[in-house]
Amino acid sequence: MPAEAREFVAEGASPATEGPPGVAVSIRGLGHSYGELRTIERLDLEAPAHGVVGLVGPSGCGKSTLLELISGLQEPVAGEVEVGGAGDPRGRLTRCAYMPQRDLLLPWLSAIDNAALALRNRGARRRAARREAGRLFERFGLAGFEGAAPAELSGGMRQRVAFLRTLVAGKPVLALDEPFASLDAITRAEMQEWLAAALRADPRTVVLVTHDVEEALYLSDRVAVLSARPARVVEELQAPSPRAPDRDAAVTDPGFVAVRERAMLALRGGAG
Q1: Is 121 within the bounds of a domain?
Q2: What backbone torsions phi and psi does residue 191 show, to the nearest 5 degrees?
Q3: How many CB atoms are located within 10 Å of the residue 216 CB?
Q4: What secondary structure letter does DSSP report for 151?
Q5: Among positive and negative, which fits the CA dihedral 74, 77, 83, 85?
Q6: Which end of the chain has fewer CB atoms within 10 angstroms, the N or the C?
Q7: In a domain, 28, yes or no
Q8: SS3 197
Q9: pLDDT of the chain along its 272 residues, tens only?
Q10: Secondary structure (DSSP) of 200-216
Q11: Whose CA is closest to 7, among 161, 217, 137, 147?
Q12: How many CB atoms lie within 10 A of CB 48?
């Protein structure tokens, strides 16, 4: 399925209400392959409700595939994936909003109409969808750009529109695949700080894929380090807490640096 279709299907399904605090995402003995190519093997992972779990691992180890399995866009060859207690693809799909690496904004739509797309896919009328999405534009630092075309927005602003579109889908679980990979270092750091604040204001269960260990530790409560293909969890690390809201202060804290070094060591060990 093309990336564009995967995102719109994931966002277009009916929203689900998250239950009481507990385990929102549960993966047990997961295995997956494409023909003879094994991508995931005997993988176990849990994400608590309103928790943020980061996934880091070597390139090509199956991180994006894992997000698609969680979101109900693929079915595993072995093992079980449950989201909010639902193990079937449709059930997982109704509980997950999937945001791929590229923002995938439609160039013929304005920023507000791109942001409202998930609501339109659920049957909302254009005016109502615009009104609901528009309520978040100021909080997302997008006020005044509602009518702008995607080509008129900076990279960081495009990512904010894409995240807003994912958020207004109303799903309790967000599957974010390298959301800031295409940004320059300064903008990426700013977006990390912004996303951390956005999740504090509107808590969701998040599974975040990133190649950046520092980003994973800053944004996540727990980080799972994956091995080279076929992926399995080689180590789980608790992110330092509490963290300074200022990113620079957080990532230079001695406790943060120590956990980052442990994560890098696990990555090197799992890449062999």
Answers
A1: no
A2: -70, -35
A3: 25
A4: G
A5: positive
A6: C
A7: yes
A8: helix
A9: 334 334 433 443 434 444 445 779 999 999 999 888 899 999 999 999 999 999 999 888 889 999 999 999 999 999 999 999 999 999 999 999 998 878 889 999 999 999 999 888 888 899 999 998 988 888 888 899 999 999 999 988 898 899 889 888 888 999 999 888 878 888 888 889 888 888 888 889 999 999 999 999 999 999 999 999 899 999 999 998 877 778 899 999 999 999 999 999 998 886 65
A10: HHS--EEEEE-S-HHHH
A11: 161
A12: 15
Q: Cα angle vertex 167, ends 163, 170, to 5°? A: 160
Is the residue at 259 inside a domain?
A: yes
Contacts of 123 (CB under 8 A, 6+ apart): none
Q: The CATH number of the domain where 232 resides is what?
A: 3.40.50.300
Number of domains in the chain: 1
CA distance 46 to 235: 13
Query: Distances in Å between the alpha carbon of 119 and those of 16, 154, 164, 168, 253?
Result: 14, 24, 11, 7, 41
- Distance (Å) of CA 69 to CA 27, 75, 190, 241, 269: 10, 6, 30, 30, 25
